[in-house]
Specification:
By secondary structure, the chain is an all-alpha fold. The chain has one domain (2-232). The chain is 80% helix and 0% strand. The protein is built from eight helices and no strands. The chain has helices at 2-32, 39-62, 68-89, 95-113, 123-140, 146-172, 179-204, 211-232. Mean pLDDT is 91; it is low at 1-5.
Length: 237
């Protein structure tokens, strides 16, 4: 049994290592791609969703029976995120489809974060993130195409709610056996909000230098922390 446990840990570390390699190559491919048909672009196409799917493998391998609902919800969120990765990287305008996929990711993450913590238990945290979300949308408003305004508002509020619930849950579970897992999820929520804000401003308002480095770097870090939160989420409810 001890050998099997050690082997499982080593395999998980290997998957995490492959994730880091794919994430790095996805960023590199995006930075160096000169055209849609370049080798670097195809490297980006191959490794961007693969990195997310590798985290899905980790989550499925590490779901404990006592936290199956949490791990399953995060896994479903990663599936939606992988679909969103594909839509956002393809040639053509599939931004709305990608937005819907990531909206579903945030909804499933909110569901996961409510499995062992009360929703909106800290109203001040939610109020703060609501203000941040409105400021983000306000800064984009005049640059957004009219058909995109309502979807972006809905998405920003869902993203803010997810980040706020992650922080609120971490505060509720602080000092318990689930505290480490909750902190990982809180880091993920914050990084996801940073990543999506950078993505939106780069697409609709400014051209951010080396945008793939900042957007994908924070995105993969966010997903990594959500995956890690299922690995550490091993106490009984």
């Amino acid at each position: 049994m001890a050998y099997q446990g050690t082997l499982g840990i080593e395999r998980t570390r290997l998957v995490y290592a492959l994730f880091l390699v794919c994430a790095g190559l996805a960023i590199l491919g995006s930075l160096l791609a000169a055209s849609d048909g370049s080798v670097w672009r195809w490297l980006h196409y191959l490794t961007k969703p693969t990195a997310t799917l590798l985290l899905l493998v980790v989550v499925f391998r590490n779901r404990a029976p006592s936290s199956r609902a949490y791990g399953t919800a995060v896994a479903i969120g990663l599936i939606f995120a992988a679909a969103g990765d594909v839509f956002l990287m393809l040639p053509g305008d599939y931004f709305l489809a990608g937005l819907v996929c990531f909206l579903l990711t945030h909804c499933t993450y909110i569901f996961a974060l409510m499995r062992d913590a009360r929703f909106a238990a800290h109203l001040g945290v939610f109020g703060f993130f609501a203000v941040i979300a409105l400021f983000v949308v306000g800064g984009l408003w005049t640059s957004l195409p009219s058909p995109m305004r309502i979807p972006v508002v809905i998405y920003a509020l869902a993203l803010g709610a997810m980040a706020a619930q992650a922080i609120s849950r971490a505060r509720q579970l602080s000092g318990t056996s689930k505290g480490t897992a909750a902190r990982f999820a809180a880091y993920g929520g914050l990084l996801f909000m940073i990543s999506d804000t950078l993505l939106a401003y780069d697409r609709f308002r400014w051209q951010i230098p080396y945008n793939a480095l900042w957007v994908l770097g924070t995105y993969y870090a966010a997903q990594y922390f959500f995956a890690r939160s299922t690995q550490a989420h091993d106490s009984k409810r």
